[in-house]
Write a structure and sequence with these properties.
By secondary structure, the protein is an alpha/beta fold. Helices cover about 40% and strands about 15% of the residues. The chain is globular. Homodimer.
């Protein structure tokens, strides 16, 4: 069973840009129990519009009888800063004036998201993590957390992510923000502000998450005489309407800006030098036809992270493949962890 909790950080939280947040709250869920030597921690960093309930959105990889299950592991997933699933966000109350922040919320970066994970880990008394994993925006967080070197991380699993957010990815995010800003209600400072713009933004995003082949397979028309009401068109509208029922435009706006900020080389010698400092045993997983985070980005990670392994998933769904092809991902991750466990035992036997 999961346990949903809120950690209220008692101090002022300083963001990377120097701005400060008071009354910071972090929503998180845990599954299973921490063992006596605290060696069974599995920590998940979620993607853009997901939440802390990893058993819901990553079924197959996580679950009662899955590879990562509560009988063997202590699983933690925290809702990220800016997301409205419980952690402090633009819809939270600004203690200075007693009103929701909306567009007065301070901008934040991937490193700030990583810093929140570290705060929560300290609160939970976790000093070492058996496996830290994240995909897409979650992978960016996991990588930054590893580089912060404040927590001992044995295994790092990076799925469909990158070391620096690309110009291509930033362009997609900016186009989505332009769509949101074109909706005048976005500037009205109300919880449902910018909803129509968010529908359009989500439609744009979906095109970067999927592929030509995926649409050809799932949205093809059987009627050659049709002139309107095409399946692909209704699908885009449906996905946008689906998102606004569970998310808000302000969180989306800020989180895409945070994604744009991702660059492990910022303030460090270089991107490649930063990656050389990853000490965890690392598995990088790419999606063969990922349109948004192309395979070249995962190849770059695997090339520059010491002794990293690279695995590629073949599927028709592009970036969304990490959520759809869970059977393939589970096999890849499971084999990686088994092999490293075997090598660890052999090393100990050799030392003995």
């Amino acid at each position: 069973m999961s346990n949903t909790l809120i950690y209220k950080y008692p101090k002022i939280f300083k963001l990377e840009n120097g701005k400060k947040l008071r009354n910071l709250e972090i929503a998180y869920q845990t599954y299973g129990k921490l063992n006596s030597d605290k060696s069974n921690v599995i920590w998940v960093c979620h993607a853009l519009t997901a939440n802390a309930d990893v058993f819901d959105w990553w079924k197959g990889l996580f679950g009662n009888k899955a590879l990562f299950n509560p009988d063997e592991h202590f699983i933690v997933c925290a809702n990220i800063l800016g997301s409205h699933y419980g952690t402090t966000s633009p819809l939270s109350i600004n203690p200075v004036n007693g009103l929701p922040y909306y567009l007065s919320f301070p901008e934040f970066t991937i490193r700030d998201l990583s810093a929140l994970h570290q705060l929560l880990a300290q609160h939970l008394g976790i000093t070492k993590i058996n496996t830290l994993l994240g995909s897409s925006l979650g992978g960016q967080q996991a990588l930054e957390w590893t580089l912060a070197a404040q927590t001992e991380i044995e295994h790092l699993i990076l799925v469909a992510t990158n070391a620096v957010h690309s110009s291509w990815g930033i362009a997609f995010n900016e186009s989505q923000r332009l769509a949101i800003a074109a909706d005048r209600t976005f500037f009205a400072n109300k919880p449902d502000g910018g909803q129509k713009g968010l529908v359009a933004a989500r439609s744009m995003a979906l095109l970067s998450y999927r592929t030509y082949d995926a649409y050809a397979e799932t949205q093809v028309e059987s009627n050659n005489d049709k002139l309107r009401d095409f399946r692909a068109a209704s699908y885009q509208s449906y996905q946008g309407e689906k998102l606004i029922k569970r998310f808000n435009a302000y969180s989306y706006w800020y989180l895409t800006r945070a994604m744009d900020s991702h660059n492990v080389g910022r303030g460090r010698k270089s991107v490649t030098d930063a990656l050389q400092h990853v000490k965890a045993k690392t598995l990088v997983v790419g999606i063969e036809n990922d349109f948004l985070f192309p395979l070249t980005e995962q190849e770059f990670l695997a090339k520059h992270i010491p002794d990293a392994e690279l695995s590629v998933i073949k599927c028709a769904y592009g970036h969304d493949g990490f959520l759809i092809e869970t059977d393939k991902l589970t096999k890849i991750v499971g084999n990686f962890l088994k092999e490293n466990s075997r090598n660890k035992i052999l090393k100990l036997q050799h030392i003995a």
